[in-house]
Amino acid sequence: MKVRRKRSGQRRLKGPDDTMTLTEHLAELRRRIVVSFLAVAAAAVVMFVLYDPWLQRFLGDPYFDLCAENPDWKCSDGFQVTDLLGAFTTRLRIAGYFGLAAALPVVLWQIWRFVVPGLHAKERRYAAPFVLSSVVLFLFGASIAYLTMPFAVEFLVGYAGAKSRVDLTADRYINLISLMMIGFGVGFLFPVLLVFLQLAGALTPGRLLRWWRQAIVLCVVIAAVITPSGDPFSLLALAIPMTVFYFASVLIGWLLTRKRSKAGAGTAAA
């Protein structure tokens, strides 16, 4: 067996039949983590610079649009800042959140490159669909959270009373909408994980289909946990797509595993 060595002396596996020592696995994992961290850090720096002219305005639009539509709320023209250090940490935290989102393609690619040596050549062709579908689903989930945020804010403000003055602090509101977008994005990634587990043989479409009742309950529970606002609009906006994606992932996994089984049967017959 020929093993290609990199200049650093670290081996790179060509397929599932090759082997690596524990030290080599840890070195490969460290390299992938370092690349992912540098990508996230670079994106976070860009987001930190863009926070004041663009990101804060983008995140605040749902709230200020509601204020314009509801003059009884008596909103202020901007967010309150009650802690100078808190304003800086909020900007730093949001830059990190959106830096991770912007660097998501690089992070997913590094995850795939770490896993791909254990896969066969036919399974490696799913690299581009894996990364592309993950990014699209994450952005779709974040968009759903952004679009449903006004309903969540209106629902929550309704508990304050008809004549209450609504003055939100920047750290509380921006943290809330950012976590909502990140939570929805991560929640929308779970069908990719299910398809991957089916391709890896850890799960089967038949088993997932038999678990459909438990899956629906689990989707609702997960949606309730990762939606920090706690309002029913956000919960349903996440739980319903997750349920649909569950059955879609079962169908996709069935089609892919069926095609692979037919290919394997044809090879064996030949």
Descriptive report:
- The protein has 270 residues and is mainly alpha-helical.
- The chain has one domain (22-261).
- It contains ten helices and no strands.
- It has helices spanning 22-69, 84-102, 104-115, 121-124, 127-157, 170-187, 190-200, 205-210, 212-226, 232-269.
- Helix 3 crosses helix 5 (127-157) and helix 5 (127-157) packs antiparallel against helix 10 (232-269).
- The longest helix has 48 residues, at 22-69.
- The chain starts with 21 loop residues before the first helix and ends with a helix.
- The relative contact order is 0.10.
List keywords for this structure.
mainly alpha
How are the secondary structure elements laid out?
Layout lengths: L21 H48 L14 H19 L1 H12 L5 H4 L2 H31 L12 H18 L2 H11 L4 H6 L1 H15 L5 H38 L1
Helix pairs in contact: 1-2, 1-3, 1-5, 2-6, 3-5, 5-6, 5-10, 7-10, 9-10
Domain module count: 1
Discrete helix count = 10
Largest sheet: none
User: What is the residue-averaged pLDDT?
Assistant: 80
Uncertain residue segments? 1-9
Radius of gyration: 23 Å
For the record, give the distance between the C-alpha atoms at the N and C termini, rounded to a whole number: 26 Å
Helix proportion: over 70%
Strand content: under 5%
Total number of beta strands: 0
Structural class computed from helices and strand pairing: mainly alpha
What is the H/E order?
Answer: HHHHHHHHHH
Shape: flat
